[in-house]
Write a structure and sequence with these properties.
The complex is a heterodimer of chains A (315) and B (376). Chain A is mainly alpha-helical and 315 residues long. Chain A contains 14 helices and 2 strands. The chains are: A mainly alpha (315), B alpha+beta (376).
Chain lengths: 315, 376
């Protein structure tokens, strides 16, 4: 009796056409299952919407503030969200040349592009070498670099400052100084692109070498076109780090206003200068900083995702 | 077109593992040589050393008269076909074929001529504009071969080129490689783990195991006179049967006693044994499945056995039987000689008899595993 109870309740029919015995699920159960699914989905979407609101709120706030009229309303913090008068006052002022903003923007762009170029070359060549060549100490180098990479960069802040000072690369020399700092350890970021290169079969290299290519030609003509996603990922990462950096930029350029980058310059407006007079301008500056990054991401999104996942899932 | 000479070539990996031991081989110009052996026997490593993809730890490698130990792969005048095709996925078939020619700075006209010619030989003209991804396995294999053909290399290396294809396609491509070889007539070195490929393709076969050459010879030679137990078991399908036996001698006449029967050796073999002055001893007897004959009721001078498995292959039967002494033996018998009744009777447990003539027997020393019937 008890054994019979354990048999699951299913309807079984003989499908004569197919000549098999089939299990037929109770339709009522099917419906209730889809109802359950719908409830779960709703819950998931509610959570997702809440999360995106939390994430987006600061940006929306920033954008609203940046469009508040400087002439007609306060330039500082106010207790309402939507501007009473929409205007481009803040942007106009930033781009008018009255402020150092354009110069800072230029500094940052220069540093970021320069770093992106150098870092991309360094990262990709280091990763390719570690992925393809076998030499003494390869494992040791890889592990050491990995462990070193776990320490936060600012641990070396004070040492770096004095080193740069001796070389005359602080204050007025801040721009080359920063480029040096950002690029110096760029080879250490080999990990993701090495993972990606590892997924490209070695026999392609070998085949190309037999076909008459030098190591560099293999890299240029075979590996690079195949590694487009990871190249783009590397460029993006290399561009973004100096573009948004505050910590290093703030102390290397300390006191030399024309050599600030955007982040430092904007921050010093609200922090040191007149907080009430600069807040909306600060917000407008923030929006302008976000523009190139947003465009870059929109255009390269497809590759970016491929790059990250491609490196992660080793084929 | 060139000969390839390997003298005392060795490969020792960084972790001190010795993959190839004292490899000596002279490959003649325009010869088709097949390296065959189980995985890990060093056949691919040897090929990769010839290609220049692996360093040579010791010994000399010559292509033609030139020592190429330290010559870059691109300067060795070789072409290689890889097991996984190694086509460049981002460029078209045409560009794949043209890749090596472009690197040689050949003019476009000549490139076009060679590429279309190779495509024609291989029947891939209509796929030239496609990317490798859009091709089937067999087509990709053709492109890989085409990429090697356009180079007109002195030596053509192939590393298990057919092992990624399904059985039917493999047979077809095997035949095509034989035709291709007739057409482009150059030196071929071919690596495979499949003894059928080795037998059908090679002018000479190099059988390897654990980094040592076991035997070098024409397919007929290695089949007829395997030098040792390993070669005997590796070449031929189904595998050769091995039985413990006793060698007896009366003057210059030798015979083998096995499982209750006595089979005299033929004069040719007796002469060899007598010349080596072999005394009566325990031997390992090898008999190929196709060299046995089945008896249904005639037990005179035949070994009794019980059928375990009957594999019907169509034109022939593979009978797995177990002898009264408990040894498993495979018998291969053409189905055309059997009556319907006999065929129907060959089921599990059926008692049959089998024997074999003296001339098909292979004798091996159980200790050294070397053949006793080889003179040298």
């Amino acid at each position: 009796m008890s054994k019979q109870n354990q048999i699951p309740e299913v309807d079984i029919v003989v499908d004569e056409k197919a000549g098999v015995i089939r299990e037929v699920k109770d339709e009522r159960k099917l419906r209730s299952k889809s109802g359950h699914e719908r409830r779960v989905n709703t819950a998931i979407y509610v959570i997702l919407v809440l999360m995106s609101v939390i994430w987006l709120a600061p940006f929306v706030f920033l954008v609203f503030q940046s469009f508040r009229s400087y002439a007609l309303e306060s330039g500082g913090m106010v207790n309402y969200l939507l501007p009473k008068t929409w205007s481009l006052d803040n942007y106009r002022w930033l781009l008018s040349g009255e402020s150092n903003f354009i110069r800072w923007y230029g500094n940052t762009l220069f540093i970021a592009i320069f770093c992106a170029a150098i870092q991309t070359v360094m990262v990709l060549s280091v990763s390719y070498a570690l992925s393809r060549l076998r030499f003494k100490g390869r494992k040791l180098i890889m592990n050491t670099v990995l462990v070193l990479g776990l320490f936060p960069g600012f641990l070396t802040m004070i040492t770096l400052y004095f080193l740069l000072k001796q070389l005359g690369l602080t204050q007025s020399g801040a721009i080359p100084g920063l480029i040096l700092i950002y690029c110096a350890s760029s080879g250490m970021g080999y990990y993701i692109s090495k993972g990606y290169f590892d997924t490209i079969p070695k026999s392609l290299d070998e085949s190309a070498r037999i076909d008459g290519a030098t190591r560099f030609q293999v890299f240029k003509k075979i590996i690079m076109p195949l590694a487009k996603p990871i190249v783009i990922y590397t460029v993006l990462m290399a561009f973004m780090a100096p573009w948004g950096d505050y910590v290093f930029a703030s102390y290397v350029a300390f006191g030399s206003e024309p050599n600030y980058n955007v982040a430092v310059g904007l921050y010093r407006w609200v922090n040191v200068n007149d907080y009430q007079g600069y807040f909306t301008r600060f917000c407008a500056g923030g929006v302008l900083v976000a523009v190139p990054i947003t465009i870059l991401f929109m255009c390269l999104q497809k590759y970016y995702v491929e790059g990250v996942t491609g490196g992660a899932v080793k084929g | 077109m060139a000969s390839v000479t390997l003298e005392h070539v060795e490969k020792i990996y960084d972790n001190k593992v010795k993959a190839v031991h004292d490899f000596n081989l002279q490959i003649k110009d325009k010869e088709f040589v097949v390296f065959v052996g189980p995985s890990g026997c060093g056949k691919s490593t040897t090929l990769r050393m010839i290609a220049g993809l692996e360093d040579i730890s010791a010994g000399t490698l010559k292509i033609g008269d030139r020592v190429v130990n330290d010559v870059e792969p691109k300067d060795r005048d070789i072409a290689m076909v890889f097991q996984n095709y190694a086509l460049y996925p981002h460029i078209t078939v045409y560009e794949n074929l043209a890749f090596s020619l472009r690197l040689r700075k050949m003019n476009n006209e000549e490139i076009h001529k060679r590429v279309t010619q190779a495509a024609e030989i291989l029947g891939i003209t209509e796929y030239l504009a496609r990317k490798p991804k859009q091709l089937s396995g067999g087509q990709r294999q053709r492109v890989a071969i085409g990429r090697a053909i356009v180079r007109e290399p002195a030596v053509f290396l192939m590393d298990e080129p057919l092992s990624n294809l399904d059985a039917k396609l493999r047979n077809q491509m095997r035949a095509e490689i034989i035709l291709l070889r007739k057409r482009i007539d150059t030196t071929f070195i071919y690596v495979t783990h499949d003894q059928t490929e080795a037998m059908t393709l090679g002018d000479r076969i190099v059988i390897m195991k654990d980094g040592f050459i076991q035997q070098v010879g024409t397919p007929q030679e290695v089949f007829d006179t395997p030098r040792n137990l390993f070669v005997a078991g590796f070449i031929g399908s189904p595998q050769m049967n091995f039985l413990q036996a006793k060698l007896t001698r009366k003057g210059d006449a030798y015979a083998v006693e096995v499982q209750g029967i006595t089979v005299p050796l033929e004069a040719r073999h007796c002469a060899i044994l007598a010349k080596k002055n072999i005394q009566p001893m325990d031997v390992t007897l090898g008999v190929r499945p196709e060299h046995t004959s089945i008896r249904f009721d005639d037990s005179t001078n035949a070994i009794e056995a019980q059928v375990m498995v009957n594999e019907m292959m169509g034109s022939e039967l593979h009978l797995h039987v177990i002898t009264a002494a408990g040894d498993q033996v495979i018998l291969r018998h053409p189905t055309v000689d059997l009556t319907d009744e006999q065929r129907a009777n060959l089921v599990y447990g059926k008692k049959i008899y089998f024997n074999f003539p003296g001339k098909v027997m292979h004798l091996f020393d159980p200790k050294t595993e070397e053949s006793l019937l080889n003179l040298d």
